[in-house]
Amino acid sequence: MSGKNKKQFGVWMDAHHATIVGRKDENSTEFEILGRVDNPGADRNTNENAENNQEQALTHKFFKEIAAKMVNIDEIHVTGTSQAQEQFIHFLSDTPQYKNAVANESTSNRMSDDALVTMITDHFS
């Protein structure tokens, strides 16, 4: 890595939970948990169309809340157990503030906070 720390982040996510890893400030060299975001999902509704619309709106809100915890992303590694990470990467590429971020993804089971921090640290080493 160059002398300047890149703004690198890692996210473990599924459709309902996300854990964000990054550096607290640009002078820090250690990754740590920056926050968690939850998406409760749509209410069960007798109208399938209304339920689908609510699910899409909640997913968009979920992605915005995750992105808000990561300012000026240079690189991001997204991992998790569902298609949510691919959708999140598309969300970032469609958002002007994040469209130039280098994003990649992998699949992994839910892990402890320490294991996630270690994984992201190793990924960006």
What does the secondary structure layout of this molecule look like, with pairings?
Layout lengths: L7 E6 L3 E6 L9 E7 L9 H21 L6 E6 L3 H10 L8 E6 L5 H11 L2
Parallel strand pairs: 1-4, 4-5
Antiparallel strand pairs: 1-2, 2-3
Keywords:
Nucleotidyltransferase, domain 5, alpha/beta, single chain, 34% helix, five-stranded mixed sheet, 125 residues
Explained architecture:
The chain is α/β, with parallel strands linked by helices. The chain has a single domain (8-123), classed as Nucleotidyltransferase, domain 5 (2-Layer Sandwich). The protein has helices at 48-68, 84-93, 113-123, and strands spanning 8-13, 17-22, 32-38, 75-80, 102-107. Strands 3-2-1-4-5 form a 5-stranded mixed sheet, sandwiched between helices. It is globular. The model has no long low-confidence stretch (mean pLDDT 89).
Q: With helices defined by DSSP (H or I, 4 residues minimum), what is the helix count?
A: 3
Low-confidence stretches: none
Measured as a percent range, the helix fraction is 25-40%
Q: What is the alpha-carbon Rg in Å?
A: 15 Å
Specify the overall morphology.
Answer: globular
- CATH T-level fold name: Nucleotidyltransferase, domain 5
Task: Write the H/E string, N to C.
Answer: EEEHEHEH
What is the C-level CATH assignment? Answer: Alpha Beta
Got a strand count?
A: 5
What does the average pLDDT come to? 89
- Which range does the strand content fall in? 15-25%
End-to-end CA span: 8 Å
CATH H-level superfamily: eRF1 domain 2
**Would you identify the CATH architecture?**
2-Layer Sandwich
